[in-house]
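User: Teach me something about this protein's shape.
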Amino acid sequence: MQISQVNQLVGKLLLASPSLLDPRFKDAVVLVCHHDAQGCMGLIINRPRSISVSDVLVDLEIGQDENRHAHDESVQRVFDGGPVDDFRGFVLHDGWHIYESTMQITPELHLTSSRDVLEALGQGEGPEHYLLLLGYAGWEAGQLEDELSNNDWLIAPASHQIVFQELPEARWDFGARCMGIDPTHLSDQVGHA
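Assistant: First, the predicted structure itself:
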């Protein structure tokens, strides 16, 4: 993949192919957030953890408006964003709110890592649609390109629907179907045409 093509992956989904041997990425759906000549950073969006957003806010001593539990945030799960720095938090959210460290990934998907977004969530004033993720996936320069040439990943379009509306366990299949691929027809055998 040439450098001019590298940035074209930002805002795309990487679907782990059945042939990918790394157990950390088995069945993973990764949203590419940053990609340049130095490497790539993404977030796994289909692995909810057993802790809730409310648990994280309590751990960080961020006050919570009791009325916010009238919404679904009280059961909103935290996601495992990837194997790198699993105590570092990110909020992937819709684009209506901008915070101190907000970075636009696509017109409908933004990423924030500053505390102010968590404080807004605690008060029920944050983004309507969001995922709180701990950790991230990272690749050194050329590493992702090598994995792509080995057919370890499928590249699918990202959308508000797949990130925020599809159930986590359905996101891989949904992404594959958006590419016109029937997941039942994929093989775990590596091959090149």
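Now, about its shape. Helices lie at 3-6, 53-59, 115-122, 143-149, 160-165, 171-178. Residues 115-122 form the longest helix (8 residues). If you'd like, I can walk through any region in more detail.
User: That's plenty for now, thanks!
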